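Justification of computing resources. Each target in the renewal requires a structure prediction run like the one illustrated here; the chain below, 190 residues long, is used simply to show the kind of job we budget for.
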Amino acid sequence: MNDLKILVVDDDPVIRRLLEQRLVKENYEVLLAEDGYVGNDILEKNHVDVVLTDLMMPGDVGGIEVLEFAKNLERDIEVILITAHSSIDTAVEAMKKGASDYLEKPINFTELFLRLEKISTMRSIMRNAEDLRQAMDVTESTAAYTIQNLEMTAGTLQGKLDALEDVLTADNTGDEAKVAKAIEIILKWE
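Resulting structure tokens:
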């Protein structure tokens, strides 16, 4: 199964059904909405990775409104707008508001699947990068702890070596007393 859950929002039942059949055939999980109101309701209640929405739908909630609603809910949701009435201005507006892509009707499914694969690949890369970041954080934390412990151990040993050196280089003590005191210091190390 593909790892994307896709919401199709289109007021045309034929297009909705066609998209559903083709996406399910490619093993995508698909949710359907017949207008922007239902689409927004589904978005509120379900995690969705990608929204394929018609740009022009009846009512006050068209594709741009679905795009804005989706992005306000979760910035990671990818939105692809679909329209029969393409215009550069609309495409630019959609991209400024966070659309990841723009397709014209009739839908070229090869193009659609390539775009979905690109989204899936980018999400996988982002997940891998996050996993690596977390692993690096753990490694860095463990390394810092280990270095701190080594520094403390080295400091303690240096103190004992200094004490041993002081005992062995003392001029006012005989050799046997020096050796006895040195052995006493060494035995305390363990």
